[in-house]
Specification:
Length: 251
C-alpha cells in the first residue's frame, strides 16, 4: 500500500511569507497549542478560590470566542445568570492564580512550539525579516512560553511585542495590530499576520494586514475564507518556494 502523498501547500504561501518585511505572530494556538494548558489553569484557579466552576473542552471552546482571560471569566459568570457579578478584585485574584499555574505547567516542558514554527523563525531571521508578536494574552504568559521554548533571551529576536493589556480593545478589534505596526514603523502591506482563529483573522484584516492561518486544536472549524493562506501547520511551508532576498523595509 502506497503512503499517502503529503498535502499540497496552497499556492502563494511561500511567496506571501517571503516577500514580507515583517512577520507578526499571534501566540496561543499559533506558536504553541497552549489553550489546553490555559483551560487546566483556569480550573485550578476556580478550585483554589472555592468556586464550583469546571470548564470542560466543549465549554472552553465556546468561551474562547471571548478574548482575554478576565473577560472570559466575566462572560461565563454572566451566563450563569447569578447576581451580582463578581467584583473586579475577585476576577483579578482568579486571574493571578490562573497565570501562575499556567507558568508552572509551561515550565514542565509539556508545550513545545508547533511544527514548523522554529524553522520559520530561523528562516525569517536569515532573510533579514523582522519579527513581532500581537496577542491578547499577557506579557507574563508570553514570557513563560517563549522562555521555555526559545530561551530566556527570546525577546531580543522580536522588534515589537504587543499584548492584550497594552491596548484598549482586544481582538477582534484591530488595536493590537495597529499598535504593532506603529512600533515597527511599517505599513500593513509590508507585513504578514500569522493567526489561528477567526477573531485573530478579523483583527489583522481590520488593520489591512494579509493573514496566513495555521489551524489549531480549538479553532480548526472557524471560517477562514478571508485569509490569504490556510495551512494545517507551518511545517507545510518547508515544501514551498520562498524568496530568500532581504526585503526593503517601509519607512
Amino acid at each position: 500500500m502506497q503512503a499517502e502523498a503529503p498535502a499540497a501547500v496552497p499556492c502563494g504561501a511561500g511567496e506571501l511569507i517571503g516577500r514580507a518585511a515583517a512577520l507578526i505572530f499571534d501566540v496561543d494556538g499559533t506558536l504553541a497549542e497552549t489553550e489546553e494548558l490555559h483551560r487546566q489553569a483556569f480550573n485550578h484557579a476556580f478550585v483554589r478560590r472555592g468556586l464550583d466552576w469546571q470548564w470542560d473542552r466543549a465549554v472552553y471552546k465556546e468561551l474562547l470566542r471571548v478574548t482575554g482571560g478576565k473577560e472570559r471569566m466575566r462572560a461565563f459568570h454572566a451566563r450563569l445568570q447569578v447576581a451580582p457579578p463578581l467584583p473586579d478584585a475577585d476576577i483579578a485574584a482568579l486571574h493571578r492564580i490562573k497565570t501562575a499555574h499556567y507558568a508552572e505547567l509551561v515550565e514542565t516542558g509539556c508545550c513545545p512550539l508547533r511544527p514548523g514554527v522554529a524553522d520559520l523563525l530561523t528562516a525569517a531571521k536569515a532573510r533579514g525579516q523582522r519579527l513581532a508578536i500581537a496577542t491578547t494574552t499577557s506579557h507574563g504568559n508570553i514570557d513563560a512560553l517563549l522562555s521555555q521554548a526559545l530561551g530566556t533571551r527570546w525577546a531580543a529576536d522580536f522588534d515589537a511585542v504587543v499584548a492584550g493589556d497594552d491596548v484598549r480593545h482586544k481582538k477582534p478589534a484591530a488595536d493590537v495590530y495597529l499598535e504593532t505596526l506603529a512600533r515597527l514603523k511599517l505599513g500593513a502591506a509590508d507585513c504578514v499576520a500569522i493567526e489561528d482563529s477567526r477573531n485573530g483573522l478579523i483583527a489583522a484584516s481590520r488593520a489591512n494586514i494579509p493573514v496566513l492561518i495555521t489551524r489549531s486544536m480549538y479553532f480548526r472549524d472557524d471560517d477562514f475564507s478571508a485569509a490569504q493562506v490556510v495551512l494545517d501547520d507551518l511545517s507545510e511551508l518547508a515544501g514551498s518556494k520562498q524568496k530568500t532576498e532581504k526585503q526593503p523595509h517601509a519607512q
